[in-house]
Automatic annotation (TrEMBL):
Designated name of the protein: Alcohol dehydrogenase
Family of this protein: Belongs to the short-chain dehydrogenases/reductases (SDR) family.
SUPFAM superfamilies in alphabetical order: NAD(P)-binding Rossmann-fold domains (SSF51735)
Self-association and partners: Homodimer.
Transmembrane parts of this sequence: none
EC annotation from Swiss-Prot or TrEMBL: 1.1.1.1
Annotated source species: Megaselia scalaris (Humpbacked fly)
Reactions catalysed according to its record: a secondary alcohol + NAD(+) = a ketone + NADH + H(+); a primary alcohol + NAD(+) = an aldehyde + NADH + H(+)
Lineage: Eukaryota, Metazoa, Ecdysozoa, Arthropoda, Hexapoda
The keyword NAD is assigned to this record: yes
């Protein structure tokens, strides 16, 4: 049975990787509306306007930007340890960086899958309430393409299926006090989707395969961000959430059972 407990964000330290991207901006705005104590925005891209706008939304939250390339393990360690050094705890870590570009398979896997796995493993050590942490919540941003085939972007789809990696057993929760949640956005208007989303496919001719995912009405990043933050507040360990067209729904994946 999964552990579920309402999680109050007030006074918490939130680390958002990919925080200057579209869904990152929508989600950081929603976190700021909860009176968190610290927001650490970690991203490869610095955007002064975005950071200024975050600070204006809630001047009482301490805001910091740390440059991070999630494909670099030493940078992950340096950034997360800097947060602990300055703010003492990480209460929420969001893995929200991602690309959708099949022209460089290794890079796509490194950013979308290996990076979030590395940050999760590192954060487990720093957030563990039986060590120096106080437990908390880790959110991995997968995709509707992590729940069903998205064949024009087969590698992206594989990385997003992989983001539902299982480090969610009660066994881990009891040892650490950390819950791990998986959020799967549907089509959301952002820089990622406003760039030609059907080009940069697995093969040059993959653009011919359009999918239902790309035909649906896009939601806004603000709608997506508000849902992500509500899912953190619900805090059901191991839960997977589909967030599309402005609505959220918990998804239960089938499990293969060994025959007796
Ligand atoms: N927009 C959608 O329709 C949609 C749907 C499903 C899932 N998603 C997922 O949501 C997440 C956010 O997507 P978005 O739409 O906001 O895209 P976006 O391009 O606006 O934001 C992605 C962010 O990731 C950052 N990033 C990229 N490479 C990085 C690296 N090496 N190290 C650190 N940061 C890096 C970028 O700088 C950017 O700020 C992604 O994981 C994406 O796959 C998006």
């Amino acid at each position: 049975m999964s552990t579920s407990s309402n999680f109050s964000l007030k006074g918490k330290v939130v680390v958002y990787i990919g925080g200057t991207g579209g869904i990152g901006i929508g989600s950081c705005k929603a976190f700021l509306s909860r009176n968190i104590s610290n927001l650490y925005v970690l991203d490869r891209t610095y955007n002064e306007e975005t950071i200024k706008c975050f600070q204006e939304i809630n001047p009482s939250t301490k805001l910091s930007f740390l440059p991070l390339d999630i494909t670099k393990n030493d940078e992950i360690s340096r950034c997360l340890e800097q947060v602990i050094c300055e703010a003492h705890y990480i209460d929420v870590l969001v893995n929200g960086a991602g690309i959708c570009d099949e022209r460089d398979v290794e890079k796509e896997i490194a950013i979308n899958l290996t990076g979030p796995i590395q940050t999760t493993i590192k954060a487990f050590k720093l957030m563990n309430r039986n060590k120096k942490g106080r437990g908390g919540v880790i959110v991995n941003i997968s995709s509707i393409a992590g729940l069903k085939p998205f064949e024009a972007k087969a590698v992206y789809c594989a990385t997003k299926h992989g983001l539902n990696f299982k480090i969610t057993a009660d066994f881990y929760f009891k040892k650490t006090g950390i819950t791990v949640l998986c959020v799967c956005p549907g089509l959301t208007t952002s820089p990622m989707t406003s760039k030609d989303v059907v080009t940069k496919g697995t093969f040059p001719y993959s653009a011919e395969i359009t999918t239902d995912v790309l035909k649906e009405k896009p939601q806004t990043v603000d709608e997506m961000g508000e849902m992500l933050v509500k899912i953190v507040e619900i805090n059901k360990n191991g839960s997977i959430w589909l967030c599309r067209i402005g609505t959220m729904e918990e998804i239960f994946l089938g499990m293969y059972e060994e025959p007796e």
